């Protein structure tokens, strides 16, 4: 793919959707909302555009697919599946698409301010009683631009191409920061992504 000036365009797909915390419920389609928003929707969309991504690759460029996950992947199935999906997509694409799961950092956004999320985040001590970021949490809060920079790095940094399927933390390969439940050995897809194979 080239634009009108002849400069090569980059084919990048970023999945950044997330559902807020709240009581368990099911959608009209009998799906849990966080899984529908964070996994099923991105999975289906990726499947629908895979041929376009494959067609955008070249000898010197591999398209990137980025799944914005979270450090919460150890207990949130929705975030856990994003990491596994990135690893499996990279494995099944056999070097023609590189996918990454990443933790953008703890960022105070509107998701912590949603009515159904406030109770959860307050109980977890992530936000204070007045609804602001808790400075006493054991992690450093990032600004929205800082978190976005990590996503941009995963999208465009070709130095990551030697580690497809990798989990990223602060823009660097950090599989050691994943929970044991999220670990997929490099090159060993778990078979859950048959739609891509």
UniProtKB/TrEMBL annotation:
Keywords, sorted A to Z: Oxidoreductase
Domain of life of the native organism: Eukaryota
Gene3D superfamilies reported for this sequence: NAD(P)-binding Rossmann-like Domain
One of the record's GO molecular function terms: oxidoreductase activity
The keyword Oxidoreductase is assigned to this record: yes
Similarity remark: Belongs to the short-chain dehydrogenases/reductases (SDR) family.
Protein known as: Short-chain dehydrogenase
